[in-house]
Amino acid sequence: MIKGLKYNVYQQHCPARLFFEKIADKWVLLIINVLSQEAQHFNLLKKNIEGISPKVLSQKLKMLERDGFIARQVQNTSPIRVEYSLTALGLEVAEMAYQLKDWAESNIEQIIYAQQRYDAVQAATE
Fold first, then answer.
1. CA distance 60 to 31
2. Half-sphere exposure of 109 (CA within 13 A, CB side)
3. How far apart are CA 24 and CA 47, in angstroms?
4. How far apart are CA 60 and CA 99, in angstroms?
5. Does an H or E element contain 104, and which?
6. Of 30, 49, 63, 107, which residue is the least packed, with the fewest Cβ within 10 Å?
7. Which distant-in-sequence residues (6+ apart) come within 8 Å of 59 by Cβ?
């Protein structure tokens, strides 16, 4: 472990560890990746992230806004429209999130193959 740092994610109550728990959420990573392309309103986000419920999207957006990763801008239109965009902090996280997305898409076939091999070995030993 690196000494001299104020925070240590290996300690149970470290605030940086709480960040890890939040950012590891699949919906959070997907929201950040989508918003890294362009600012979007709620319904467009919901459309672009298949499978996310309105309730979960709302919860994750509030959490990301509270943590300083996204900005929420109310547009004075009729009906009122809210647009979400990444902050400077959110853009930094988006770079790392994109690398994870890219890695997952590039390596998923190897992972599926490893899972199939593992399952076959397990089935043969039962």
1. 8
2. 1
3. 22
4. 21
5. helix 88-125
6. 107
7. none
